[in-house]
Design a protein that fits this description.
Blueprint: H1 2-9, E1 15-17, H2 23-26, E2 33-35, E3 54-58, H3 67-75, E4 83-87, H4 93-102, E5 106-110, H5 114-123, E6 126-129, H6 145-151, E7 156-159, E8 173-175, H7 180-192, H8 195-212, H9 215-230
Parallel strand pairs: 1-2, 3-4, 3-6, 4-5, 6-7, 7-8
Helix pairs in contact: 3-7
Length: 231
């Protein structure tokens, strides 16, 4: 199947890629391409929601995405008024639930309706995605939660993943890797910001994704590629 796919690709005029690193695979054909990492769809209410003191992780709860490191970093904080909430499910469910039994500030919320999840995202202190940037797959994927997190207007803590274009990094609280120390520094950064600073930071991220990653802007990239191919 691999050889068949490679043969078919010779006859393709251009590519729409999720990440620039994907061109490592397609580059041998020297065809034009454009990177469209996704499109933000304005599905949920952007009305302001009262803030609460919790960090939030949403999505699949599997091993090797930094959950253990995130929990350890959280437990190292001197601040004992903030909580850590997990939404979703996966192989780490029991691990998180065990942690919550010994630390009441850690919560496993399971699955909730997407629109309700967005309300939680708007009310959080910060949203967290700390996958290991050394994992090979992060070069070829763009975390789908990124758009939703940024649109929520809540500060977003993220490792610097190779599949996330550099232009996004100005709108995130970035951590170099998903070591406990690095994540702890990211959490502390949020805690040392004033409520107003967090609001301004989150609002800039929201404006960026609404204005620069909407269906009009992203589809124009594809149209421009089609015009280039057709010229």
């Amino acid at each position: 199947e691999y050889l068949i796919e490679k043969r078919i690709l010779k006859f393709v005029d251009g590519y729409v890629l999720f990440t620039k690193q994907m061109n490592e695979f397609f580059g041998e054909y020297n065809k034009p391409y454009v990177v469209v990492e996704g499109v933000y769809r304005d599905k949920y209410s952007l009305e302001k929601t009262p803030k609460k003191s919790f960090f939030m992780h949403a999505g699949s709860l599997h091993k090797n995405i930094g959950i253990e490191e995130l929990i350890e970093a959280f437990e190292n904080l001197d601040d004992k008024s903030t909580e850590l909430w997990f939404f979703g499910s996966g192989t780490m469910d029991e691990y998180i639930k065990n942690k919550s039994r010994s630390n009441s500030r850690i919560k496993h919320k399971g699955f909730v309706d997407p629109s309700k999840l967005f309300e939680y995202e708007k009310s959080a202190l910060a949203l967290v995605n700390v996958r290991d940037p050394r994992e090979e797959y992060t070069k070829y994927s763009f975390p789908s939660k990124t758009f939703e997190y940024m649109a929520s207007g809540t500060p977003f803590i993220s490792t610097i993943l190779p599949g996330i274009p550099k232009e996004y990094l100005d709108y995130m609280v970035t951590v170099e890797d998903n070591s406990v120390e690095a994540i702890e520094n990211g959490l502390r950064t949020i805690l040392t910001m004033s409520a107003n600073e967090r609001e301004v930071f989150g609002r800039k991220a929201r404006e960026y994704v609404l204005n620069k990653k909407n269906k009009i802007v992203q589809s124009k990239k594809v149209m421009d590629l089609l015009e280039l191919i057709d010229s």
